Amino acid sequence: MLGGPGVLPALPATICGLFLLSAACLGPGCQALWVHGGPPSVTVSLGDEARLQCKNNATRPNVTWWLIIQGNHSYPPVGSGQGSKGEWTIPKVNKSHGGVYQCRVEDNGQSMSSCGTYLRIREPPPRPFLDMGEGTKNRIITAEGIILLFCAVVPGTLLLFRKRWQNERFGVDTQDDYEDENLYEGLNIDDCSMYEDISRGLQGTYQDVGSLHIGDVQLEKP
């Protein structure tokens, strides 16, 4: 038989030792520290509040936040995280707060850092002169169109009705006066006949120049 009879009693002792070791490591102090990498970036408008979280599985985490300055490759600490998530809060951000923030968690002699989160500061868009919604703008444009239509149609319609009223009131009477008026009233018929006789008498005084025969005509010297 392989190993002899003395080997078999040693197996239970080894298994028991492994079991005790594993039971001792089930406590919180034996767990590996874990820190979430965090979001790659967080965008906050200028003047708003910024919140950065450092999620971890530590029982009593000691969280420290660092600001990574790329210009001189320095990592100055900016403050300690609050709560179990190690949250870092900036009440009112400005342009100087932009950059990469990294959290470091320490617990029971273990430490671990996050990958870092870039805090991006976004400037608000310029406020327009008339800050109103699209629905309000559409209603204003519709009202302007109605007012312009009213200003263009109503005066023209009134002028047309006024002209028609004037024609109906004065135009017909004037036309009747012209029709009833005798154009030959006051004309003396005798004067007309005398003028006709005179015109007929003057017709004989004219001679045809082409039928004249010029005889001995002497021109006077000047």
TrEMBL record:
Residues 1-32 form the signal peptide. It is found in: Membrane. GO terms for biological process: B cell differentiation; B cell proliferation; B cell receptor signaling pathway. It is a single-pass type I membrane protein. Residues 28-113 form the Ig-like domain. GO terms for molecular function: identical protein binding; transmembrane signaling receptor activity. It comes from the Eukaryota. SMART domains: IG, IGc2, ITAM. One of its GO terms (cellular component) is membrane raft. Keywords: Immunoglobulin domain, Membrane, Signal, Transmembrane, Transmembrane helix. The chain crosses the membrane at residues 140-161. This is CD79a molecule. It comes from Urocitellus parryii.
